[in-house]
Amino acid sequence: MEFIAFTYVGNFISDGLIKEVVFDVFDGANRFFEENSLPLRFLYVGKLKLEPGYLIDIYTPEGKIRAYPLEVLTEVLHARLLNEIEGRSDIRMNKIFALTTFPLVSRNPYLDFFEKFMGIHKTHGELRVMVLSMNPFEPPELSRLLGGSDEGERTRLRRGLEIFKTRLLKGILHEIGHSFGLEHCPNNCVMNSPSSMDEWDSITIGYCDSCFISLKRAVEWSDFPLENR
Ligand SMILES: [Zn+2]
Ligand SMILES: [Zn+2]
Q1: Cα-to-centroid distance, 153 and ligand 1 (Å)
Q2: One short Pfam family name for this protein (predicted)?
């Protein structure tokens, strides 16, 4: 069994709701691995705390946004992964995955939809850091519905949350696929690289047969003791 350290960088507002979304997709991913007999599990290693001082203002055509520079985030995650590995020598783990509630930016100021949508991978030798922003997956009306008190608004909020979680789960499976060497795929498959959120919504949760076989082989291969390879 291979483990992937899992963490998230929280927001200051609506933390309860963010937590619900994060842990539902965490459970959803582990259930997916289990049901598909993939010897792979996420291991929750606690929420990641970043100093608010690292937050920077970025001016985009849609206005000012607050974000963490990616360079800071990946460094902190790399350090966290090293720490976790040191404390858990009994399990096999060389990857860390983080969800952020913030848009991901680098010093190169503004990322377009496509780049924002896809996660970021950084490798340090055998170790891999993965970051996926929850931000682009969030249905735009969700935050507006948060304070809603009437029945109709609450129903729309629940529905919006389900859409949010499904999009995110597919995003997570997409990044996991990349971390085991999968490329983009034209099929109805989470390894598809969509050009819009509508396209992403039309994709079924899961890998197509060919991607699944490649993934399973890669996961099982990495599970094989080094000396027998
Ligand atoms: Zn991709
Ligand atoms: Zn595929």
Answers
A1: 34
A2: Peptidase_M54
Spatial distance between the Cα atoms of 30 and 40, rounded to a whole number of angstroms = 8
Task: Give the domain ranges of the chain.
Answer: 2-179
Residues 6+ apart with CB under 8 A from 130: 95, 96, 97, 98, 119, 120, 121, 175, 179
Ligand in closest contact with the CA of 120? 1
What's the CATH number for 2-179?
3.40.390
Q: Which residues contact 154 (CB under 8 A, 6 or more apart)?
A: 145, 148
In the structure, ligand 2 is a single-atom ion and the residues with CB under 5 Å from it are 185, 187, 189, 191, 208, 211
Strands 127-133 and 120-124: antiparallel
pLDDT tens-digit profile of 33-67?
Answer: 999 999 999 999 998 887 777 777 777 666 777 77
Closest ligand, as measured to the CA of 171: 1
Neighbours of 197 (CB within 10 A): 16
CA atoms within 13 A on the CB side of 6: 19
What pLDDT does residue 112 have? Answer: 47
Q: Please report the sign of the dihedral spanned by the C-alpha atoms of residue 191, residue 196, residue 201, residue 202.
A: negative
3-state helix, strand, coil in the chain (%, to 5): 45, 20, 30
Which has the higher per-residue pLDDT, 117 or 161? Answer: 161
CA 80 vs CA 59, 73, 141: distances in Å: 30, 11, 34
- Higher-confidence position of 74 and 228: 74
